[in-house]
């Protein structure tokens, strides 16, 4: 950049291309699309499948040994795993969807126990339904579905 804040023309380099490349390199899209990688291919997963199976069996055996045979108390990681399992979300979804306050609430209510988690989930679903019932967009959608019915792609002759 020069003193006036304007981009200088470099010989043989297009400034728009440079800016585009900087934006692409620094773009962080969480939960969306990401750049393709060799690690996302079927060939890679086929190659590491035996290692994945070994790690899963090892983890399962260690879990069974620690918590079923030795009757250890659950640590925070084990509690979080059980909570994610009972809620039915993956690690990435859990990290994106739930805030620290939600996690503290889950720990206070001992949601690593299945019955407590089911109660918490029912309360949360009821609160979300109440929130949606108050939403104008949801009401409009319900009216549309009531009046127009479902959309059919089958030719009716």
Number of strands: 0
* Tally of DSSP helical segments: 7
Q: Biggest sheet: strands, sense, closure?
A: none
Tell me the span between the first and last alpha carbons.
Answer: 67 Å
Radius of gyration: 25 Å
Class inferred from helices and paired strands: mainly alpha
Question: SSE string, helix = H, strand = E?
Answer: HHHHHHH
Q: Summarize model confidence as the mean pLDDT.
A: 81
Parts with pLDDT < 50 across at least 5 consecutive residues: none
Rough shape? flat
Number of domains: 2
Measured as a percent range, the helix fraction is: 55-70%
Structure, described:
Helix content is 65%, strand content 0%. It has 157 residues and is an all-alpha fold. The protein has 2 domains: 37-72; 73-147, no CATH class. The chain is flat. The relative contact order is 0.04. It comes from Caenorhabditis elegans. This is Mariner Mos1 transposase. Keywords: Chaperone, Membrane, Transmembrane, Transmembrane helix.
Topology:
Elements: H1 15-26, H2 42-69, H3 76-87, H4 91-97, H5 100-108, H6 114-134, H7 136-148
Helix pairs in contact: 3-6
Keywords, separated by commas or semicolons:
157 residues; single chain; 65% helix; 7 helices; flat; 2 domains; mainly alpha
Short description:
InterPro entries: DNAJC25-like. By secondary structure, the chain is mainly alpha-helical. The protein has helices at 15-26, 42-69, 76-87, 91-97, 100-108, 114-134, 136-148.
């Amino acid at each position: 950049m020069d003193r006036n804040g304007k981009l200088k023309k470099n010989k043989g380099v297009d400034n728009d291309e440079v800016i585009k490349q900087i934006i692409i390199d620094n773009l962080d899209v969480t939960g969306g699309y990401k750049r393709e990688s060799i690690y996302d291919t079927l060939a890679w997963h086929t190659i590491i499948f035996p290692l994945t199976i070994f790690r899963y069996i090892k983890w399962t055996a260690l879990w069974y040994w620690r918590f079923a045979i030795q009757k250890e108390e659950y640590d925070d990681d084990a509690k979080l795993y059980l909570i994610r399992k009972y809620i039915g979300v993956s690690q990435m979804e859990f990290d994106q969807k739930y805030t620290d306050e939600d996690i503290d609430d889950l720990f206070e209510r001992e949601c690593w126990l299945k019955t407590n988690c089911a109660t918490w989930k029912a309360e949360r679903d009821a609160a979300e339904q109440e929130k949606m019932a108050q939403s104008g967009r949801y009401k409009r959608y319900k009216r549309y579905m009531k009046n127009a019915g479902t959309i059919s792609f089958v030719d009716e002759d």
